[in-house]
Write a structure and sequence with these properties.
binds coenzyme A, eight-stranded mixed beta sheet, Aminopeptidase, 8 strands, globular, alpha+beta
């Protein structure tokens, strides 16, 4: 697999998440001001609370998986300002079955601009170019904004996984929507 280190779009650019303290501090600052909007949906927002936590994520998830071809994490920057706005990644890669998932988040002040819509379309184009056949997006059934990202990008709602996850915050099992786009949809 040969994912590009940089993918330039109209409003945003995706950059390979580099292992630097500067980026760790940027991620931590963005997550800190956005924690309320991230917490209900992203379990990592509970435990990643310092720049050191973010550095550990950059080193032991982003860099490690990129080098091993097991996951591709990009940070998203706004073209007009260069500011970090969020991140998008390709994870749970199943090389044999040529599929994997796209995950994402935005800092709360950057929601509502179509940034994630563009990020998903940029990343999926690369994923299909690498020979993958199916991309999934999973979201809590109550996460309307995330569902709208999948829907707006043309993903098909395959179904609902009932109570497939334990929510630490709510101490209960929660349901997941599974959306997908297959190569045939992409090439239509
Ligand atoms: C999920 C999340 C990334 C969605 O963010 P978002 O800003 O709603 O999504 P997009 O960036 O695609 O923007 C779409 C919004 O921008 C608007 N928009 C403006 N210009 C647009 C354009 N050119 N193209 C598409 N949408 C545009 C859309 O109308 C939409 O706003 P609306 O829903 O109020 O109508 C964000 O809410 C988030 O980070 N949530 C917390 C973390 C999370 O839930 N992650 C996903 C876990 S599964």
């Amino acid at each position: 697999m040969n994912f590009p280190e940089k993918i330039i779009g109209q409003k945003i650019t995706l950059e390979r998440a580099a292992v630097t303290f500067e980026l760790a501090r940027e991620l931590d600052a963005l997550a800190a001001v956005s924690r309320e909007s991230l917490l209900p949906w992203l379990p990592w927002a509970i435990k990643n609370k310092t720049p050191e936590d973010e550095f550990d994520y950059l080193l032991n998830w982003c860099d490690k998986n990129w080098k091993e071809g097991k996951g591709y994490a990009y940070i998203i920057r706004e073209n007009i300002s260069g500011r970090l706005v969020g991140s998008v990644d390709f994870f749970d890669i199943d090389a044999k079955n040529k599929c994997g998932g796209i995950g994402y988040w935005l800092g709360s002040e950057f929601v509502g601009n179509g940034y994630m819509h563009e990020a998903v379309l940029l990343l999926e184009k690369e994923i299909f170019a690498q020979g993958f056949n199916r991309i999934f997006i999973g979201n809590d059934t109550r996460n309307i904004r995330s569902a709208n990202v999948a829907k707006r990008a043309g993903y098909h709602l395959d179904g609902v996984l009932r109570q497939d996850r334990w929510s630490e915050i709510e101490s209960c099992f929660v349901d997941t929507n599974v959306w997908s786009k297959i190569r045939a949809d992409f090439e239509k």
